[in-house]
From TrEMBL:
Domain called Integrase zinc-binding: residue spans: 9-64
Protein name listed in UniProt: Integrase zinc-binding domain-containing protein
Originating species: Paspalum notatum var. saurae
GO molecular function: nucleic acid binding
Domain of life of the source: Eukaryota
Length: 177
């Protein structure tokens, strides 16, 4: 074990060898500290190493390049089969029909963009909706994957929301008789 004196030039030499010569690969501070600890001891070495890595120009540039830009859309993978992946939403707050429906369940196939508008009631259970889904939509495949949309993942539901807007516009232009 080599005891490193508290002399800046000697410390810099060792830190440089361990971090940014052609034989080192700019290790992070934790990794670098554990490597050095095997052979060297110095007062406050952990902090010294962390400071050295923090101001390394190369490390900062690499870090900036690898950081993901925040706020970009994450596109969903394109489905290969009809009704393999769907998006859905409910248009609620509509006046009740004679048949007891007060909302519209909008289901859009992500591949073909075919939309189904199914009259439902807000009190319908999940089982009832599943029954409706099978009878109204599914004849070919039950392999549909649900991608639940929440306020925190609005990109999941862009398609349905757009369809809902079109539907709402239709209501305005052509009010039901
Ligand atoms: Zn570095």
């Amino acid at each position: 074990m080599i005891c490193v004196p508290n002399v800046n030039s000697i410390r810099k030499l060792i830190l440089g060898e361990a971090h940014d010569t052609v034989y080192s690969i700019h290790p992070g501070s934790t990794r670098m500290y554990y490597d050095l600890k095997e052979r060297f001891w110095g007062y406050g070495m952990k902090r010294v190493v962390a400071e050295y890595v923090a101001i390394c120009d190369t490390c900062q540039r690499v870090k900036a390049e690898h950081q993901r830009p925040i706020g970009l859309l994450q596109p969903l993978k394109v489905p290969e089969w009809k009704w393999e992946e769907i998006t859905m939403d409910f248009i609620v707050g509509l006046p009740c029909t004679q048949k007891g429906h007060n909302s519209i369940w909008v289901v859009v196939d992500r591949l073909t963009k075919v939309a189904h508008f199914i009259p439902v009631n807000t009190t319908y259970s999940g089982a009832k909706l599943a029954e409706l889904y099978i009878s109204r939509i599914l004849h070919d495949s039950l392999d549909t994957k649900l991608r639940f949309s929440t306020t925190y993942h609005p990109q999941t539901d862009g398609q349905t929301e757009r369809t809902n807007q079109i539907l709402k516009d239709m209501f305005v232009v052509e009010p039901p008789i």
